[in-house]
Amino acid sequence: MFNLIPYQNKNKLFIFLNFFLILTFFYFVIDNSFYFFNKILFQDNNKHFYDLKMVHNSLVGLINNIDIYEIKYPFHENPKSAYPPYTFELLKNLGKLDWEVFLKYFIFFQILSFFLLFYYSYKLFPLEKIKYLYPIIYFFCLNFSIGLGGTVTGNIAVILYALLAVGFIQLFNKKTIFFNFVILIISLFKFYFLIFYFFPIFLYGFREIKKIIFFISLFILINYFYYVFQPELYLSWLEYVNIQTSRSNLNPWVGTDITQSLLSLSSIISSFFNIDYHLNSIMLNLFYFFTFSTTLFCVFFIYSPIFIKKKSKKIRLKLLSIAILAMHVVYPRLLPFDFFLIIPVYFFLVSEVIFSKNKNKNFGMKFILFFIFLCVQDSQIGLLSISLLFFIICFLEFKKKDPLSIIKS
After folding, report:
1. Which residues does 87 contact at the CB level (< 8 Å), separation at least 6?
2. How many helices (H) and strands (E) are present in the chain, helices listed first?
3. Exposed, middle or buried by CB within 10 Å (0-12, 13-18, 19+), for 87?
4. What is the pLDDT of residues 195-220, one digit of tens each?
5. Can you tell me the distance from the alpha carbon of 354 to that of 26, in angstroms, rounded to the nearest whole number?
6. Could you write out the DSSP letters of every residue in 291-314?
7. Which residues, other chains included, contact 127 with Cβ-Cβ below 8 Å and sequence gap of 6+?
8. Other beta carbons within 10 Å of 60
9. Reported pTM
10. Nearest Cα to Cα of residue 333 among 236, 190, 234, 216
């Protein structure tokens, strides 16, 4: 139950490090819990369900024919909800509900969403050895990102990712139309969820492209018809999205994705040499599209089942896990509440991958990866953890000169 790191022999050092890892993790569980109750629940009431309040205000504003995306400088002091206007149009009758009633509906769907996310975790991934410990890991790893970002901020990401989790279960069972429909629905809230259309092609080949084109065409038509119907509000939304996603060290909304990490690194280096230099948006966007396309292209042509003869469920689960890991490495606007799907994937891959034939080195690598994931407390730790695991896997594949070695293991 408490063997976070799988090992075959009874080395006393392995047993001690396992115990140390769990003990350290529980220290941060207790520390984060005290912080959560003292600072968040009882002292910082103004930030409870802050994102949800913006959604409710936008619905009320739309009912009253107000431009719900109008924003003044400084932008971060009066943020708006960035969901598209056609989505608000579909849900605007919810704006007639009092805030307290609206909140109760959200909390109900939030609780239901967590049940679905746990169902996804236990249904797809072999978590039997940590099935009682896993809920604690789920809410308290990654600098408490899931626990805090998924409970009191009121961001509807938990609901969207729950739908996506159900979609992944159906995709794993080869029900691709259901998955494609789920991506269409959640993309109406956050358009960059369209990138998840990569998964049906990755798992089942190019024959899925026709279905994907159909659903993407529906998405484009929805946008086009709403633009014709409400051009001013639609353009106002595009302008706001442009402001919110602009690459800058001072932009509080941009997230901690790989592009923002490059910007932060370049700023640190230029400051060290007393040079006033900042990468512009064009360079950063080119870097992102190059990184994104190259990563997914390589993952597809290395691991695609097109090139794998054996297609057992375990192999399919490894393929799905590698794709989810790669997607999070290049995910746009990576925020604390974007890690709902990666927790079981990370544990599964670290447990399954043989990092070295030497048992000591193999155990040591797993210990480091779990320690960073569970015990290091920093806002950048999510991207660091998944990127480190992803690039170690890439290095091992290259070193062994067998790009399918992880699938075969």
Report:
1. 188, 189
2. 17, 0
3. buried
4. 999 999 998 888 899 999 999 999 99
5. 27
6. HHHHHHHHHHHHH-GGG-S---HH
7. 121, 134, 344, 347, 348
8. 18
9. 0.90
10. 190
